[in-house]
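In keeping with the milestone schedule agreed at the kick-off meeting, the structural modelling team has produced records for the first pair of proteins. Each record is given below as a sequence line and a C-alpha cell line. The laboratory manager (R.T.) confirmed that both were archived under the project's standard naming scheme.
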Amino acid sequence: MTRSPILRFALVATTVAALTGVALVARQAQPTGAALANAANKFLATLTPEQKKKAAFGFDSPQREAWFFTPQQDKEKQFTRKGVRLEELNAEQRAAAIDLLKAGLSAKGFTQATTIMSLENILAELEGTKGAMTRNPNWYFVSIFGEPSNTGPWGWRFEGHHMSVNCTLDKGEVVSATPVVFGSNPADVRDGPQKGLRPLPETEDAAKELINSLDADQSKVARQEKQFPEIQEGKPNSGAGSPVGIPAAKLTDSQKVILNKLIEGYANRLPADLAKAELQRVKEAGPDKVFFGYCIEESKKGKPYSYRVQGPTFVIEFLNVQADSAGNPANHIHSAWRRLTGDFVVKQ
C-alpha cells in the first residue's frame, strides 16, 4: 500500500504527539484559557476568507451544541459535518489546527486523539471501498464559536469519527471542557504492524479491576440487567437520569482507590489545570456519592460490556458492545466524560 498524504499526516501527527510531552507540561505555566485563546486566534489568522466562513460561527449558533462522534456521512459517503476539515488546510494551517487541539488536551489526551485519527487508516484497509463509510484521517473538523478572547464568551470544537473535543470559555476561564468523547475501533489492534496497540487502556483496565474485585453482594447491586444506552450526541445534556449501581460508600477502601483511578483516567485527558478542577468538583460534591454500575454479557462472544460512573457533577459513559471492522466481537469502544449540569453552559 503506497503512503498517501492522508496516511503521511496521520503518521506525522502521531509522531508529533509522542514528542510534545515536555512542551505541553511547560505550557501549563500559562492558564489553559489564555493558551486556547492564543491558539484559536493564530489558527483563524491562517485561514482564507472562504475557509474562515466554514470554521467560524457565532457563539449563539445552534452548531455549538451540534456535536457528533459518529461518522456523519450521507448516502454517497460524503461528510455532512460542519467546520473546516484538515484535508483542505495547507501545512501551516494544519499545524495551527493541531496546536489548538494540543492546547485543549493533556499530553496523554493529545497522543490518544492523534492515535484515534490514525485508526481511520486501519479501518480503510479492513473495510475497503465497499465499506459503509468513508474512512479518512483528515476528515477531522475545527469550529470556532464567537471571538476568542480573554474578555467574553467563546468556544471551540475539534471532532471527527470517534472523537469530539469541546470547550466553552468566558472571561479567559474554561467554564466547561465537555463533552470529551473518545472512541476506538479496534479497541485492541490484533493484526498488522500496530498489533497490540490499545489507544484507550485506561477506560478498560481499572473498570475490569473494579468489577473483578466486587463480592457477590456488591455485584448484585452494581450489575445491571441491560447494557447502558449509547452516548447521546448532538445534545447539550447527557440524559443520564438518576445514578444506578453501587455507591462508593459501599466499596472498600481498596475498591475506592480503583474507582478513583478510573475517574482520573478520564479527567486526565484534559490539561492539568482543567483536570484538577474537574476532580475537585468530584471531591467537593462528595466522593462517596459516586455510583458505579456495569453490565456484561458473559454468554456472548467477546463478552460485550458497558459501565457508567456517575456523581452529582459528572457522568462517565463507556460501551464496548460492538464488533470491530475485522469482525472481532466486543472490540469497539465509545467513552465520554460529561458535566451533569450541562455541557456548553457559560454559567456553572
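The second protein of the pair:
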Amino acid sequence: MEFGTYFSLAIYFVAMLGIGLYAFKTNEENASGYLLGGRKLSAPVTALSAGASDMSGWMLMGVPGAMYVSGASSLWIAIGLLFGAWLNYLIVAPRLRIFTEIANDSITLPDYFENRFQDKTRILRVLASVVIILFFTLYTSSGVVAGGKLFESSFGLSYELGLYITAGVVVTYTFFGGFMAVSLTDFIQGILMFVALVLVPSVVVFELGGINETLSSLEQINPQLLSLFTNASSGEALSFIAIISLLSWGLGYFGQPHIIVRFMAINSVAQIPAARRIGMTWMLVSLIGAAMTGLFGLAYASNNGVSINDPETIFIVLSQLLFNPFIGGFLLAAILAAIMSTISSQLLVTSSSLTRDVYASFLNKNASDAQQVLVGRVCVIIVAVVAIILALGENKTVLSLVSNAWAGFGAAFGPLVIISLLWKKMTKLSAIAGILAGTITVLVWIFVPINEQGETLSSIIYEIIPGFLVSAAVILLVSKIVPEKHSDNDVLFERFLQVLNNK
C-alpha cells in the first residue's frame, strides 16, 4: 500500500474525530442533546445520515458482489428498498416526528411505544428494549468484523488490529459527540459514498471505451447478465415468489430503529419533504452506482484478465487498479465510511436503549440529565467491547443471525410503528402481542428445519413477509377482540391528529 493511500485514510480519520469534538463542544449536555441531538437535524443531514446508516458495507460490497455474480436479477432488492424507503419518508417520518414530541418528548423507540400506549406496566418498553439490545449488539459486531476484514485484505494488517482501529475511531467520536456526532459523520460519509459510487463505474466505462462497448462485453460474457428475470449464475428464471421475496426487503424500513430515529430528530416536520427528496435522490444514484460497479467491473475484469477471488471485493480491486494512491485511499475511505456510519448508529441506538429504557426507567428513575449522558457514554464503550469480543470469536451462528436482523426488526417493529401512527384504536396489549408474533415468526422461519436436509422455510420465501403479515394481523385482531375501555389513548391520538393537520 502506497503512502498516498495511507495519507488519504489518515485525513478521513482525523476528520471523523474532529466532527466528534465539534459535536461535543456544541451539544446540549442533557439526555435529549446526547441521545437525539436536541431535535435539531437539518434536512440534508437527516437524509444522508439515514441513508449512510442504512446501507453500510452492503452498498459498496454486497450490491456490487451480487451484480457481479447474478447480473441484473439482483436489482429487485434495490427496487424494493427504494419503494420501502420512499413510503417510510411519506408515511412514518412526519407522523413519528410529531407523535414522539407530543408523547412526553419520547427520544427512543421504546420510549415512544410506552408513551403512545401509556403503558404503566413497562412491559412494552422492556420487550422492545430487549429486541433492540440483542439484535443491535450483534449487528454492531458484524460491522466491526467487516472493518477488520477490510484492513486485513487491503492493508495487510492483522484482523484483530483492524477490529480495534475500526471500533476505536467509531467509539471515540460517538462517546464524545453522541447523536449529533453520529449524524454529522454519517452526513460526510454519505457524501463520500455517493461520490465514490458515481466515480468508479464512470471510470470503468471510460476505460472500456464507452457504454455500448461495455454492454457488448457483458453480452459476450453472458447475455443473461442483463436480464431482470434470470439469475445469470444459475441460468434459471426467477419465480414469482423469488421476486416478491427480493422486493419485500423494503418492508424492513418501517422497523429499523437506527433509521427512523432520524425522523424523530429532524428540526421540524416542514423539513421532511426536503429530506425525502435529498434522501431518495442519494439512494437512487448510489444504488445504481453500486449495481453498475459490479456489472461493469465484471466486464473490466474479463477484458483485462483480472482475477477476482471474492466478487464482493470488486469495488476494492477497481479502486486500486484504476486510480492513483491518493484517490484510491479516498475510495477505500468510502468503504470505511459505509461500515462506520452503520456501526456508530447502531452503537448509539443500543446505548440509548440501555440508558433511557433500562437505567433511567428501572435502576435510577430520578436520574438527572448529566447522569443519563454519563451512563450513555459508558454504555457506548460496553456495547463496543461486547461487539469486539463477539467479532474476535468470529462466531458463524452470530453472524448468520445478524444477517437476518433486518427481517427481525422489520417484523417486530414495522407493523407496530405504522399502525400506531395511523389507527387510534390500537391497544397496548396488541402492541406487545405484535412484537412477540413478528419476532417468533421470523425466528421459526429462520431456524426450524422442514426436511431431512435441514432446509428452513427461509429457503422458500424471505422471512420478513410472514413475520410482517403475522405481526400486523395479530395487532389488528387483538385490538378488535380486546379493546381498551379507557379513552386516554384516544385523547392522545386526537391531539396528535390536530397537530398533524395544522402542519
